[in-house]
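Review session, final week

We close the course with one last complete record, chosen because it touches almost every idea we covered. It is Replication-associated protein ORF2/G2P domain-containing protein, a protein from Anaerostipes hadrus with 189 residues. Go through it on your own first, then we will talk.
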Amino acid sequence: MPYWIRRVYAGKTVEIKKYYSRKHKPKEKRAKTGEPSRPEQEEVNIRRQTEQLRWKLNCNFQAGDMFITFSYRKDERPDTYKEMLKQKDKLIRDLRKQYKKIGKEFKYVYVLETGDKGARHIHMVIESMDTKTIKKCWDRGRIHIRLLDDTGQYGKLASYLVKEKGRKKMEKYGGKTYSPIQEFKTATY
């Protein structure tokens, strides 16, 4: 059976995958669907999104960069998802200003999450920055910072960030599973 090999170079990692080809009609267009994905297809979609986020994280972040959880005090929690989006936008604007002051481009990935008991928080992966500066940008609750390790392989982090879609589905949140503002660099050969 014919096959093809995909090599993905992302930061320190190289992933090689062997695919077997199926017969298909190259000129045939994909049909539009109006129905939600079946559970099996949803699992495939989540696996693909995790893979793509892993490549982006591996390629664009390194040891010393930060995985931050911005949590809310109980009395400061937003009531609606739209309020949470506005607060996230303000946080990103403030962080971008701080990065501009030190002459860096603000590269990030974020995921909005609501826990089982209703606690809302924002997960974000950013390049390394002074923690006091980050604290100036977020006064609504605690900040938990974990530094990325030097392996260059952030697959577990990617699957953690994508997990929310699998748990809560799109009806509640809408939009993408994770949200980087600009496209990151990845290389596939």
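Two points worth writing down before the exam:
The first strand starts at residue 3 and ends at 10.
Strands lie at 3-10, 13-20, 66-71, 108-114, 120-126, 143-147, 187-188.
Good luck, everyone.
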